Amino acid sequence: MDIATLQRLNSARAARQASVAVTDLATGRTQTFLEGEPLTSEWDAAISDALRSGRPTLSVVGERSLFINVHLPPPRIVVIGAVHISQALAQLAPVAGFDLSIIDPRTAFATGERFRGVELIADWPEDVLPGRPLDRYTALAALTHDPKIDDFPIRAALEGGCFYVGALGSRKTHAARMERLRLAGVAAEDIGRIRAPIGLDIGAASPAEIAVAILAEIVAALRNRELGWGGEAS
């Protein structure tokens, strides 16, 4: 791989931008595509499959054998609320390959004793997130039940294009949440992206079971996410 290609891939990684390197095995020529750029139409399906799996793959397109190497930003989960569900989720997320951080201004909950080895930020989300912007490879789980804490990061996640936005609460609670977001100017289409009640419907009851349901829903959203790639290459 030449220096120019490596520089493009490294720049994309630093910007948390997905990239793909496609090598024609017959010629040895490598082409790189950054997220948002147009793809070669005949390669679209093969590249899209690789992007969703996150794994390099060998694909035959027409009469050409292609090695597709995918470079995705490390997926991460931002949890709003240092609650019991968060404790379980903090243990499960690394097993599934996710970085995880927790934000909660309530210092009685956000303590190192309760969250050992976890990135824990005891501050208001509106003070934290401008310096740690949410992006397409971030999942947000809002778990406090408190609109003063949850609503801002939910809006930030929708604006940032997070691949998953979930919020704890009953249908009645979520209906009130949707109305607040509507009055705050959030588009109905964006509000419809919020997963609430949060987590897959597996009949979860305990905090640990709810954490499993949330993580499963996050994984499903990551693997079935809308890809941020441009139109067809000329």
UniProtKB/TrEMBL annotation:
Protein name as annotated: XdhC/CoxF family protein
InterPro entries with a match to the protein in the record: MoCofactor_Util/Proc, XdhC_Rossmann_dom
Lineage: Bacteria, Pseudomonadati, Pseudomonadota, Alphaproteobacteria, Hyphomicrobiales
Gene3D superfamilies xrefs: NAD(P)-binding Rossmann-like Domain
